[in-house]
Amino acid sequence: MKDIERHFLDGIFDPAAQQAALRHIADECDARAAHLMVADGARNLLQSTFTCEVDPDFAQLEHDFQPINPRVAAIPFMKAGKASRDKDYITREEIARDQTYQELILPMGFGHMSAVPLLNNARGTAGIALHRSMEEDEFSDETAERQEQLVRAALPALDLAAKLEHMQARTLLAKLADHVIAFVTSRAGWILEASDSADLLFSMRILRRLPDGRFAFCNRPDQIAYERLTGASQPASGRFVCRGRAPAHTWLCTVYPVPCFGAIEVSGPILVTFERAGGARALDKKLAAAVFGLTRAEADIASELMAGQSLADIATARGIAISTARTHLARLFSKTGTTRQPELVLALSDLLERRPG
Length: 357
Prior knowledge:
The chain is of the alpha+beta class. 41% of the residues lie in helices and 20% in strands. It has two domains: 2-154, Beta-Lactamase (2-Layer Sandwich); 160-351, Beta-Lactamase (2-Layer Sandwich). The chain is built from 15 helices and twelve strands. It has a five-stranded antiparallel sheet with strand order 2-1-5-4-3, covered by helices on one side. It has a five-stranded antiparallel sheet with strand order 7-6-12-11-10, sandwiched between helices. Strands 8-9 form a two-stranded antiparallel sheet. Helix 1 packs antiparallel against helix 2 (15-28).
């Protein structure tokens, strides 16, 4: 158990160690594969790690079948720390007629499953499943009990990963405190951390709190715009105007998916910032050029990315090929020490033009 726990803790930053922990559990339980799965409260799949080789298209298939997958539908009824097997929620006759089993699960060789949720509540699910092919024996009660013991070794790593995400969120908010009102939320809409002034948006009826603790936009068009950015399998950066009841209560909302801190993603954090419309500040391109050694073209593209434009829109507006725009972006990453657009935006956020007065 201690070896598995150590591998999971190392696996926060080392995917190979995470794989070693999962393989150890699979071998102990005579399983073809072990599967670490993390999903948020809306059942958005945040992480899906297997110990075996899987079809390159499996991740997309897994996402596509998510709404009709009987195994996913059974998750709310699974008890944390206890093994659930296929026989607990579906019969062999139903399996023979079920599209997900016939087109996804059985072709992958995962006909028998024993899953142990480690966390399972309104905010999300994390668990480890074991798989065997349909030709092999089902998981026995003894094997399921052994699995329950072994997978507990992952709990310290999941707890630490969640704490690291919160630390990362607080660091982001501290960096942006002088510029905007900001939240770091989960994919499903729970607020992980928020600026001290965040209550202003609720009092202005820009946002509202739902009974289950999540937040939502008061205006339906604003909520649709937000979900369009965050609801896909891969959330996108973007910006839209949102409004409260009074005409003066108009804000620019910008959404940035936050890069995962390590190899275990717990909440799928998203940075959501608000600044008053008409008062948004642009990148100080001269300062950015001086600090990071940017060329004029690189500074222009960085400024447009900061304004929430996509790389494709920037290329079209500037009359350049998308490949040229990607070359500029690669140079921006190199010069700023970043690897993704949200990281780039955050790195440049201290270089906004100062407002008069």
